[in-house]
Design a protein that fits this description.
11 helices, Quinone Oxidoreductase, Chain A, domain 1, Rossmann fold, globular, alpha/beta, homotetramer, 7-stranded mixed β-sheet, about 350 residues
Chain lengths: ~350, ~350, ~350, ~350
């Protein structure tokens, strides 16, 4: 048996004893080196966004050490220090052959397994399916804190920029500058945006957004953000908009502030409501060529290796988002609570184990 | 002065006397040879979809004869028989350089001028801006009825297929099989779809859809179309969905029936309501990689020349949609009324002048 | 032991006895129902295009019956009649995650295994790696002859059209109208080409090209094909060119006949020479935006299922290419010889077993 | 009459008297503020790359002041300080409607007019066609030296990155690190490359390449650059290769060092030879999915405005390439000669007028 921090039921968390996971032929068992709680964990536990779950081990952001591998694993061995993507798809499906992104290789969102359809990483040990395809080596010299930003924050934020189809020299809006949004700012810069208008109100986040490449901050407390963007773009609107936070109405705002021919890239996880509104007039009655993309980040090994390469070459510095560090698995509840009741000075906490 | 058939105000049409239009240096004046009323005209007049208009000459689907050209027109001369696209953009704008589709070259939908922001084609004479860029020669041997399907119906329906990003061998749903939807069926076939599920209930349209390449008809009278599509696709959903008709709720249905990684292409003109609903769960909480595209058809000369080439090489046979032919400008009110109160045997009327 | 028809060494073929193949956990063993020799087999044997090979079993185009499956195969069982793609990649590699086409998942061309890096299908039995990912059910009612055109001819020819980035209403040239080129004509039509200029000289092929959708035949015996294409396109050149046959110089011709902004899609297997020439002036000194793509067809199950769907919906009729049918494995040498010394009435032979 | 520095004939330059240019209705006449000689001028004069020219005024990189505008020019007036793109297309052609890049709107390379098909900018005055579409305002605070890098160097180098289809986290090779290659390094970074291997031998260029974002320098003096790249990439090859310099053989090298599924983007102007070689084996016999793109940079106003935005937001710092500054039109011969016989400390000279 092992110790794990779990969602006991909607609204309640706690420590449980759980059986140590077992590796199949292609799998690996890991122990955590660094863990990070995610706003998604908050949605899952306190909003019941995934529905009722009983004793589901939480967590999907981890750096770990391999302790066991299955008989068919070739590239990893016990002792290896690795980065574990939040999204660990089954890479061998006919739907992938058909062009469906691997994140949905067995149905929508099926690549997201940790703390969703199987136990998460907040435990003494956790299981990774298809280790050769879903793990990446932690390079020497990369800090655990920085590495812990790659499994979800970095790849998700950057995917927002990929979805937004940014062209060189474009004007891009990033709505929401929590850790995913901050990485979306980096992503927009990585794709060649010139102006980046970051929408947020928290001072610490705004400062880091500017450091990461935002050229202007739009604060919703100063009025309608659509109007602010239109004013800043001489009425034309933005070429691309990345949605990395906000309630369902944010989709309507994004469409309204995008120019004809522009693109909206959504990586926001909408937790509530039946519908997300597209404004009929803002979408030019259906005919404005404002493309709407939204997707779960790519997962798997190659994606993590690319994130690693971006850090190693200095293209991104996600470690700057880590505002708080804890030591010891015991601190997981405290770190999670920090994401629950975000004080102004919190961007992202990490628990070192 | 000339005679023209106009929208007098919302809900009312009638003949008016209007000044004969004048050609600028790059423009042309035409007299109509064949005219077709469009459902959009019905929206404009009876639903006030464009807002109040007073004495606006109706009509944007025309084949005509050039009667006058401006001093800078090089490729057309009086007497030329030409096809006139419904969309006649200003082709010389910085926004086009920026990658904005020409249909929106001076703002959303600005390429749509006829019977919208300037007088339409239901008149003794009408004006075409930038003739060299916005007219295409009517080839010998093409019937006027067939040619009259190209300015809007053919190009718009086919654009639906373009927006839906169809891959070879895909399963495609076409929602709505009026004349635009029928051409969307042709478009799906032109892009390589294997299965084409056409959603409609009118027998005459369904028959032509099958002739044009639909492999199955989905009738909403037989139950929820989303369920029907999911059943027909073993629960996977369609690779691509083209929306070519329906109220705002059709967008939600389209998303629900699209598989992760699939694409929705909308050419439907939504005339009512504040918002178009994207279903939160059907869109996988924002993360399902179901892309939503919607746009006004490309206009202009090259687009019409491509439509002509498709007819000449037998790739499309849009003339089959012409169920009723009238003779004489006098018949315009009758033809328009036919689009207003569509009887089951009507697909599209044409007025020969 | 089993009987097999093999390349004994460069320039020599013959029957050999070989051990019956063994299935790994994910694999299947099949017996052939229909086999087709390919021009590639001729290259391999008589031109030594792959280098020296000793007792390599030939053949990569097969329809078969499953006789044995490994313990992990889920979707197929002994007795199933299946279509076997010529390209059977390893679908579980990091390179695929990195965006490399599966045909090259373990290095260039590694998806092409049969009669290249492992024994081919011209035998009593043959082995298929990863059966769930690399086999497709033969549907009831599809003839073996037609099905035998799918593993390579149909998918390769159509891939030429995919590579050539054809837009609706385009003018497309297909160079070479052997069986791959004929399917490239179908592919060009499937992607929406209007004019299709098919380059070839054999009467039987030209007739079928016209039936498949070519609008004009260009015969190199009538002069320089570049000049003929330029004349036919008023000096502009083609929008897209598919190369499906010819010596290395054909690449230069293709570039010369493509317009700026156009695309060349190559599925031709170049067997000789050190270099393929791109004409400096025809390529506008490197700056003409004439894109050059070339690739091995996608393989695997989903691809074959899409080919099946195209046949079932009547989009393609590849069975018309089968000009000669043989009965019995014994006839393989005769069928191969027919591809070696193509008489004017041969397009493609099939051996039914 | 005015004074101008011209190519008198192949191999010979000199000052000439020429008539002051006249503005058509949409055109502008400018006087130069800053001029830069380009390696292309050297090709034109000393290699006769464009063929014989008599008294052709040289130069296509300029920042200028408007002295006269035609009657239809709306956005510019005498006194405006503007950046003049090297490429000034006719933006109103049917080929652009057909998807042909504007740089080729009237045939291959027709967007390149200055010092090619009309007189260049090395004169007291020069003519710009379609001023509203082909000029961009010089913003306050931007130095003339920096601005002079935008008409050709910045946009061309960055276009190399666009053509090379760079994905986030990719490994990119840039062959040639003269001023265009240095900007290609910036372009690769702007598109999200992680590793950037810059191929060059000149110390000053290598230093600036590293500052601009290159992570490694490959020096051909250390051996075969293909082998060096393969070694550095564990035998896999690069994801993308940008060619920004070199003789015709560089294309073969680029193909050899690109992985299957990768892309080559060429902005090199090949001045000599009949053919550019694609290596048959390196291109996997035509089937390796190594895409080859090559193109003239986009020109026009919006492109220059995007370059300006990149400078203003600090994304690029092209001014660092200006190693030498001259004062006065008289210095043009000296500056041109500096490009002709490049000493090790020269990257790019600018002449301030």
């Amino acid at each position: 048996m092992m110790r794990a921090f779990a969602m006991l039921k909607i609204g309640e968390t706690g420590w449980i004893d759980a059986p140590k996971p077992v590796a199949g032929a292609y799998d690996a068992i890991l122990e955590p080196l660094a863990l990070a709680p995610c706003t998604s964990d908050i949605h899952t536990v306190y909003e019941g966004a995934l529905g009722e779950r009983c004793n589901l081990i939480l967590g999907h952001e981890a750096v770990g050490r391999v302790v066991e591998v299955g008989s068919e694993v070739k590239d990893f061995k016990p002792g290896d220090r690795v980065i574990v993507p939040a999204i660990t798809p089954n890479w061998r499906t006919v739907e992938i052959q058909n062009g469906v992104p691997a994140s949905h290789s067995e149905g929508a969102l099926t690549g997201w397994k940790f703390s969703n359809t199987k136990d998460g990483v907040f435990a003494d040990y956790f299981h990774v399916n298809d280790a050769d395809m879903n793990l990446a080596l932690l390079p020497d010299g990369m800090s655990l804190e920085e590495a812990a930003m790659l499994p979800d924050m970095a790849t998700t934020g950057i995917h927002g920029a990929e979805l937004a189809d940014i062209q060189i020299g474009s004007t891009v809006v990033v709505i929401g500058i929590g850790p995913v949004g901050l990485m979306a700012v980096c992503g927009a810069r990585l794709r060649g945006a010139a102006r980046i208008l970051a929408v947020g109100s928290r001072k610490k986040c705004a400062e880091l957004a500017l450091e990461y490449g935002a050229t202007e901050i739009i604060n919703y407390k100063n009025g309608d953000i659509v109007k602010q963007v239109l004013t800043a773009t001489h009425g034309l609107g933005a070429d691309s908009v990345i949605i990395s936070g906000g309630p369902s109405e944010v989709l309507a705002q994004a469409v309204d502030m995008t120019k004809p021919g522009g693109t909206i890239g959504n990586v926001n996880y909408y937790g509530e409501g039946d519908i997300l509104p597209v404004p009929r007039l803002g979408w030019a009655c259906g005919m404005g060529h404002k493309s709407i993309h939204g997707g779960l980040t790519p997962g798997g090994r190659a994606r993590m290796e690319r994130m690693v390469a971006l850090v190693q070459t200095g293209r991104i510095n996600p470690g700057k988002m880590v505002t708080h560090t804890f030591n010891g698995l015991d601190k997981l509840p405290e770190a999670l609570e920090m994401m629950h009741h975000k004080s102004p000075d919190v961007i992202k906490p990490v628990v070192l184990v």
